[in-house]
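Following up on my earlier message about zinc ion. Here are the inputs again, as you asked, copied directly from the submission form:
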Amino acid sequence: MASAPRIFQLVGTCNNYHWGKKGRNSLAARMCEKATPTGFEIIDDEPYSEMWFGDYPDFPGRVAETGEPLGDYLGKHKEELLGAKIVKDFDAQLPFLPKILSIAKALPLQIHPNKQLSERLHQKQPDKFTDPNHKPEIAIALSRFEVFAGWKRVSHISPLFKNPALAQFVPSGTGEWTNDTLRQVVRKLLKADEETVMTVENEIARLSKNDLRKAIGEDYMADLIPRLQMEYGSTDPGTLVALLCMNFLVLEPGEALYIPADGIHAYLSGDIVECMARSNNVLNVGFCPPADRDNADLFTEMLTFGPDTRGDITLPRQKSDAGLKGRTSVYQPPIREFDMLRIDLGPDEDEEIQALEGPGIAIVTRGTGILHGNDEEIAVKEADILYVAPQVQTEWRTSSDLQVHMAVSGLQ
Ligand SMILES: [Zn+2]
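Thanks, got it. Here's what our run produced:
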């Protein structure tokens, strides 16, 4: 068999979940259009939620030149394109799955089950849980990015539950709240009937910003409740769990967060680069129609709790030694599957990324430039996606500006 090129272009596949931004407002759609040589038609009224560009078969990245799904191609050139370590440790599959998301309204309130539960669910329902893996993920803001993630401190949650409309969700005899109190409260909120959810939501919607500030020190709930009700109606329990119990964070471009396995989250708006362990397992309980919701008991049983301050949830961007000229930073989640490099170049600047033990997938998120590697030069522009084989040093340069996000395995 002919040997594979060490660097080659990929195209992503876009999906159309209803929460995606519509038509040309979607960065995922615009990127797909720019990167697809055979053409990709954007329809104005259609939502474009995510562009995937990994080897996962659901919405596969493809080799640009041939259209072959990346997974099939890697399968033919395992050692060359994945490296010995990934062949051995990750069953000859890319350990990470990168995506671009364009979010117009809340994604389902969700957790991604840990490995143990994923294995169990995959065995029982392979059609729904399509792999046995966990899915810790990172999200890097490309625009302003709103998100519910992790839990507020119980001392910030419990005061509002003294309100008569909410007291019914607190187990009788509760004194000081513990994490287990919160687990039981969340279970009851998720299992409440639609009538009850609506009554409670309307009760909360009546509270003034002043009342809220006095009770819990925050007033964003007053603005978010009508917005979430417009998106998902007044009977979705996700609104109650997210507003009453979870942190609401706004990230600016370049800021990132890390969601561990079993970590609760619901992204609300923005364009992001997302990267996760290679999995598609999810349990949804809110911000989706009742028929799409998973079992609330299973969901609450799996929940993990804190520490969940903004500092715990956000993932710092640090300078990376992988960039030999100091123009590279890295987001490093505490997992072994991947890290995300970011290269930022101004006019007439360049950067060299050292050869790594594992492969990388780079996406140009801004500007134009030249990629040099393995004695080849490739002109690159925004939305281009490049596969870089293990042990290949790359050099990036531009006369204008260039920003690249690169998911890598085997950094350290
Ligand atoms: Zn998620």
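One observation from looking it over: The first helix runs from residue 27 to 35. Hope that helps, and feel free to reply on this thread.
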